[in-house]
Structure formats: C-alpha cells, structure tokens
Automatic annotation (TrEMBL):
InterPro entries: CDP-OH_P_trans, CDP-OH_PTrfase_TM_dom, CDP_ALCOHOL_P_TRANSF_CS. One of its GO terms (molecular function) is phosphotransferase activity, for other substituted phosphate groups. This is CDP-alcohol phosphatidyltransferase. PROSITE patterns: CDP_ALCOHOL_P_TRANSF (PS00379). The chain crosses the membrane at residues 29-51, 57-78, 90-115, 182-208, 229-250, 256-277. GO terms for cellular component: membrane. It comes from Natrarchaeobaculum aegyptiacum. GO terms for biological process: phospholipid biosynthetic process. It holds the Pfam family CDP-OH_P_transf. Keywords: Membrane, Transferase, Transmembrane, Transmembrane helix. The keyword Membrane applies. Belongs to the CDP-alcohol phosphatidyltransferase class-I family.
Length: 283
C-alpha cells in the first residue's frame, strides 16, 4: 500500500467515525472516566488520611472495581444518548453526578475493607447493621452514603439554575440513582441490617427497564411513564431507610423493620408504574 493509499484510508476512517458519532461519544466517555477517576482519587485520599484501614490493597481493589462499574454505566448511558441523535457535552451538573459515583465507589471500598479488617475501628453488629457504639469512625459508611444521596438534589438544581439541563445529564442522574439504591440495598443486606427480600428494591429499576426492553423487542405496546409525586417520595424514603440502617444509631432488629417498611411502598409503586407503561391498567 502506497503512502497516498494509506492517507486516503485514514481520511475515510475519520469520516466514518465522524458520521457515525462514535468519536463523539467515545470522547465524552473518556472525559467522564477521567473526571470520575480524579474525583474518586480526591475522596479516597481524604478517607485514607483519616482512616488507617483504607491504606490497604483491599480498599484500593474495591474502589477500582466500583469505579469500573460506574465507568461502564456512564459509557453505556453516553452511547445510548448519542445513538438517539444527541451529542451533548458534560456540564458542571454532570460532574456533580459523577462525584456521586466517586463517593459511592469509596463507600464500596470502605465496606469491603471493613469486611476484611476486624480492627478497623468501626464496630459491627454480629448479624446486624453498623455499630452500636458512638465512635466517630462508626459514621463513616453512613456519611459517605448520605453524601452520595444528598448530591442527587444538587446536580439537578445546578442544571436548572445554570440552564444547562440536557438529556445526557438526566440519564446519568437516573442511572446513578439506580446504582446508589442497588449498592445501598446490597450493603444493608450483607451487613444483616435488612431482609434479603430488600434486594428486590435494588433490582427493581433494572428488572423494570429489562422488561420494557423485551416488550419493545417483541413489538408489544409500551407507554411513556407519567409524572408522579409519589415516585420521588418513596425513592427518598428508601435512601433514608438505608442510611438509618447504616448509621450507628439503630439495632439490627430496628434496621430490618425499617428497611422492610420503606421497601413495601417503593416496590408497590414500581409495580404500578410497570402496569401503567405496559398498558395493563389505565393511567
């Protein structure tokens, strides 16, 4: 192949990338991954300074695993948005959403370290939730989870006030909401602070989306999801219930009752939404 032929192939390849939009969403994905890694390093650095058990390979390994999951979720979200014809930039609000992913990754790292480091300083109830003691470090998992949850209200507010609301930002926010709920439910169940049935709360959003994907693939009708004031309320209640189960102020028995109490209306609302969008009931 001559230099001219190779040059022509390079030009054609670049043209194909531009026309297909692959270069655009890959660039967004790399940007999101870079922001996420930097933010995770900052949060993890703060945890490491104040919590000695974080200075281990275990802590870094769990964080690496969690960051990889968030990067994949972000990449899939960006690709689907681009496939829909929207080539939207990452805004400051999107960076705040990614900060939630960074904090969530550190939350996973802390819990993974606790599970393998009995001398961590965070007392654990045998078969129950996080400690009954009042040691400040006992609040670390709850504090990280609370930060990830509270930033959920910040990113949307920033986007609206700065007039930078985008479809990409909204989708990233939704996916981080679902991931936060999934990680939180797995954490409290693993700690014995919730019934195993509560895992259905974390899986609900993914089962819901999967069932709608299958219906569309089969050519069956799917409605748009109507707005609802109840939906936000039950979601907030679940996050609050998980936080209380993680905080060193509840016993294992109290945590199990609490997480069950918030799971029931959450799952009932998800079931109702599914019945509506699958045309099984009227709006």
């Amino acid at each position: 192949m001559t230099p001219d032929e190779r040059s022509a192939d390079d030009v054609e390849g670049r043209r194909w990338l531009a026309e297909s939009g692959i270069d655009a969403w890959v660039g967004r994905w790399l940007e999101a991954a870079t922001v996420l890694v930097v933010l995770t390093a900052l949060v993890a650095g703060g945890v490491t300074i104040g919590w000695r058990p974080a200075r281990t390979v275990t802590f870094a390994g769990w964080i690496g695993f969690a960051v990889a999951v968030v990067v994949i979720v972000a990449g899939v979200t960006i690709e689907r948005t681009a496939r829909g014809g929207a080539s939207e930039p990452l805004t400051i609000a999107s960076w705040i959403t990614l900060a939630r992913g960074a904090i969530l990754a550190c939350f996973v790292g802390v819990l993974g370290s606790i599970a393998t480091a009995p001398g961590s300083g965070v007392e654990m109830l045998m078969g129950g939730g996080v400690a009954t003691g009042t040691a400040p470090l006992g609040w670390l998992p709850a504090a990280l989870f609370a930060a990830a949850g509270l930033l959920d209200g910040v990113d949307g507010t920033v986007a609206r006030r700065a007039s930078t609301e985008t479809d990409l930002g909204a989708r990233l926010d939704t996916e981080l909401d679902a991931l936060t709920t999934l990680v939180g439910t797995v954490a409290v169940v693993a700690l014995g602070a919730a019934s195993i049935a509560v895992l259905a709360v974390g899986a609900a959003r993914y089962l819901y989306a999967g069932s709608l994907w299958w219906r569309r693939r089969q050519g069956r009708p799917v409605r748009d999801l109507p707005s609802s004031r109840v939906r936000a309320g039950v979601s907030a209640a679940v996050l609050l219930g998980i936080w209380l189960a993680l905080a060193p102020i509840t016993t294992a028995e109290q945590s199990v009752l609490l997480t069950t109490a918030v799971a029931v209306p959450f799952l009932a609302n998800f079931l109702w939404d599914w019945l509506v969008v699958t045309t099984r009931v009227s709006r």
